[in-house]
Amino acid sequence: MMIDYIIGKVSYIGEDFFLLEIQGMGYRINTSSNTLSQLIKGEDRQHVFTDLIVREDSMSLYGFVSEDEMKMFKLLLTVSKIGPKVACGILSTLRPSQIQKAIMLKDVTTLCKGPGVGKKTAERIVLELKDKVKGGFTEDESFDEVIETMDNEAVEALVALGYSRYEAQRALQGVDLAGMTVEDMIKLGLRRLSK
Fold it and tell me: What are the pLDDT digits (tens) for 104-122?
């Protein structure tokens, strides 16, 4: 059974999943923190691209707001020894275009930022996907790379202070971070989280 997308109401947002309610039924959808940071609880018509993963002893639904994120998720699953949890972890750390760029530049260090990704796994990602990632994944190339790196550092600092990655990303979402230092971003995040 193939489910390409679902449209429903976001009824709950967890640490690494959310519930999408459709006609009285709640679908648990596993996802990345990047997608979680874009969801709004109570949103009535949330469009989610989905992939149903069937294992011998379980069925799990994975979904993403962005079609690029779904495409990259499916590509990562084609790499030997990478399962859906590791793929989601990578997509929680890097956006699809960043993963594409890292693969094309053979930047193993950047890929190792994903939880559960060691040097050998990152090298395998580069080797197995280098011919598959040409084209596409342009959704976020307009972002200033420096600000994005600083934003990631601020998120990591907030996580180190005990907040969840979702809370930290949400605290910095929708703010013009241009001209701010990492310290400014952390202070802003703490102010917004304490409200």
Answer: 888 888 899 888 899 999 9
Q: Is 48 exposed, middle or buried (0-12, 13-18, 19+ CB in 10 A)?
A: buried
Q: Sign of torsion, CA 96 138 1 37?
A: positive
* CATH code of domain 5-64: 2.40.50.140
The tens digit of pLDDT for each residue in 149-175 reads 667 888 888 888 888 888 888 888 777
CATH of 67-129, one of 3.30.1490.20, 1.20.1270.360, 1.10.150.20, 3.40.50.150: 1.10.150.20
What is the Cβ-side half-sphere exposure of residue 79, based on CA atoms within 13 angstroms? 26
Q: Which residue has the tokens 């859906």?
A: 84
Q: What is the DSSP string of 18-30?
A: EEEEETTEEEEEE
pLDDT of the residue at 70: 94
* Plot region of 167 (φ>0 → left; ψ -120 to 50 → alpha; else → beta): alpha
